[in-house]
Amino acid sequence: MISSLINDVLLFLSDFGYLGIALGLMIEVIPSEIVLSYGGYMISQGVIDWPLALVAAVIGGLFSQLFLYWFARYGGRPLILRYGKYLLIREHHLVLAERWFEKYGQGVIFGARFIPVVRHAISIPAGLAKMDQGKFSFYTVLAIIPWSILFLYLGDSLGSNWRAIKETAAPYTNVVLVAAAILTVLYVIVKKRKRPADDPSNL
User: Fold this and answer.
1) Cα–Cα distance between 74 and 128 in angstroms, integer?
2) Could you tell me which of 153, 132, 143, 126 has the C-alpha nearest to residue 180?
């Protein structure tokens, strides 16, 4: 069930329409699944329209990750370790994300977006590694679009029952997670095959 505090935040954001969706995803006060589902509910009520709701979701989701990317790129690891807790990023989250980034490369930015704990932390090693911002944004948006469509659609379908999103979304998110894992594995295989045979990273 949705807590009264989260419900109050959603009601506040709903007053801003599309901007409210973008801000809700940007500041990450509450989970993106809930913000998007509520956005879907607003679509079902005719308050907002599908295309612009999706655009707002993509913008909000992208900037949410760009803030973490910039924080890491220009602040460095010491700053992350010191202030990351205020962004709900703990050291063990960072270590796990760094391992993923080192093991699977830049393409993991896409696949990790669908995995709890790693999905937000993965932006930090990308920033620390000074990954090209354009490529980072591309992989991030590529993952945000299907995720946003899924929860906007479910919220729209549930209508006034959107609070049951957790139970309703479970089968869908499992499928998305498996699909993302498969795509990530395929990406890694293709990247390895493209490397020269004497490249140490192939070993």
Assistant:
1) 8
2) 143
* Chain position carrying tokens 């700053």: 79
Cβ atoms < 10 Å from Cβ of 181: 13
State how far the Cα of 22 lies from the Cα of 27, in Å rounded to an integer: 9
Question: Is residue 117 predicted with pLDDT exceeding 70?
Answer: no
190, 74 Cβ separation under 8 angstroms: no
Q: Which position has the token pair 């948006």?
A: 141
* 3-class secondary structure, 199: coil
Residue 64 CA to residue 120 CA, distance in Å, equals 9
Nearest one of 51, 163, 56, 68 to 113, comparing CA atoms: 68
Q: What is the mean pLDDT of the chain?
A: 83
Alpha-carbon separation of residue 40 from 52, 73, 173 (angstroms): 12, 34, 16
Give every CB contact of residue 105 below 8 A, 6+ residues apart in sequence.
Answer: 187, 188, 191
pTM value? 0.82
HEC string of 38-66 equals HHHHHHHCCCCCHHHHHHHHHHHHHHHHH
Under the banding of pLDDT at 50, 70 and 90, the label for residue 62 is very high
